[in-house]
Amino acid sequence: MDRLINYNRMKFKLRNVLAYFVAWVFILIGLVNRAKKKALKGDFILSIYFHNPSKKEFEFIIKWFTKNGFKFIGVDDLKKIINGSMSFPKGAVLLTADDGWASNFANVAEVANNYKIPITIFVPTEAIESGNYWFSYAKKAKRLGMGYLPSKMLKNVPNAERLAVITEIKKKINLPREAMTISEIQSIAASPWISIGGHSHTHPILPNCSDDELESEITVNKKKVFAWINYQIDTFAYPNGDYGVREMNALKKEDFQIGFSNKPEYLSPQSLNSKFNLPRIGILEGASKAENICRMVGVWHKNTLKVF
Questions:
Q1: Which end of the chain has the lower number of beta carbons within 10 A, N or C?
Q2: Local structure of residue 209 (DSSP, 8 states)
Q3: CA triplet 171, 219, 253: central angle to 5 degrees?
Q4: Are 1 and 145 in contact (CB under 8 A)?
C-alpha cells in the first residue's frame, strides 16, 4: 500500500513538473495576456471553482486577480446579469467551491471574509452530517485491498449499487472527519460574503439515479440546508459535473435559479442563456502557480485537455 501511495505521489510530481514548463510556454507566447485582456474588456466572466485549496493557494488567486485589475462578483450578481437587471460586467470573476471540505472553513471562508470577496460553497448534506464523503471510503478500501469496486468504477454503476457497496465498506472501516460541521456551515452562512449552495444529499452521480432518487437527492439537500441556515438555497452545482436534461428539469421543479457544471469554459453572454448548465473552470490544488494562472484565464483546458 505504501508503495502505491508513493508511486502515485511520484506520478503527480512528474506531471506537475511537465505542466509547469508547459504553463510557462503559454505565458511567454502571450496566450495568458491575450485572454486576460479579453476578460478585462468584458467579453466573458471568469467562473472559477475549487475543492480543497490551501490557504496559500486561495489567497494567491485572490491577490493575482486583484493585482491584474479584476473585480469579484457573487452568485446574486450573476442572477441579476442573467435576468437583465445588471449589465454584463468587465473584468469579472466568480468564485465557487464544491463539497464543503473541513479546511474550507479556514482556507476559503476566513480568507474570503478578510478580503471581502464573495464566494459560494456547494455542500452535500450527508457528508456535512456524517463527516465523510462516500468516495473517500471507496479510496480507503482500495488502498487496503478490500476487493470492492474503486471510486472511479462506482461512478459508472446504478446509484443503488453504489450505495450498497459504500454501506458495506462503512461497516468495516472508519475515517477521520473531512467535511465541515453543521455549526461551521451555520457560521460561514452568516457572513455577507459567503453563500451556501446545493450539491445533492449523498453526492451521487445524478444521471445514475432513478427518478425518485434524483428528486430525493435534490429535495433532501435543499430542506436540510434550509433547516441549518434558515434561508432557501437556489443555486446548485452538479456532483462530479454530471447532468443532463432530466437533472436540469429537476432543478427547475425545485425552484433553483441556476445550476453549475464543470465544463471548463468561459461564462459568456451566450452561455448565460442556459442558466442550468453554466460552465466553470477548475483550479488544481497542488499544481504550480503558473499552471493555475493558465487555468484561471481559461487557456489551460483549451490547449492541454487531451494531454493533462
A1: N
A2: S
A3: 145
A4: yes
The backbone region for 206, taken as left when phi is positive above 0, alpha when psi lies in -120 to 50, beta otherwise, is alpha
Distance CA 198, CA 236 (A): 5
| Per-domain boundaries in the chain | 2-131+177-304
Average pLDDT over residues 157-174: 96
Beta bridge partners of 258: 235
Tell me which residue has cell 429537476: 250
21-65 pLDDT, tens digit each: 999 999 999 999 999 999 999 999 999 999 999 999 999 999 999
- pLDDT tops 80 at residue 297: yes
161 CB-near residues (< 8 Å, 6+ apart): 154
Q: What CATH class has 2-131+177-304?
A: alpha beta
Is residue 92 within 8 A of residue 118, CB to CB? The reply is no
Nearest of 296, 286, 305, 304 to residue 17 by alpha carbon: 286
What is the mean pLDDT of the segment spanning 92-115? Answer: 98
The DSSP-derived string for 213-238 is HHHHHHHHHHHHHHHHHSS---EEE-
- Residues 6 or more apart in contact with residue 71 via CB below 8 angstroms: 89, 91, 92, 93
Cell of 41: 474588456
Q: Which range is least confidently modeled, 15-19, 186-190, 207-211?
A: 15-19
Q: From CA 182, how far away is CA 126, in angstroms rounded? A: 11
| H or E element at residue 191 | none
Spatial separation of the C-alpha atoms in residues 299 and 32, rounded to whole Å:
7
From the list 72, 71, 44, 55, the residue with the least C-alpha distance to 297 is: 44
Report how far apart, in Å, the C-alpha atoms of 125 and of each of 21, 179, 220 are. 40, 10, 8
User: How many Cα atoms occupy the beta-carbon half-sphere of 244 within 13 Å?
Assistant: 8
Which residue type, as a one-letter code, is found at position 7?
Y
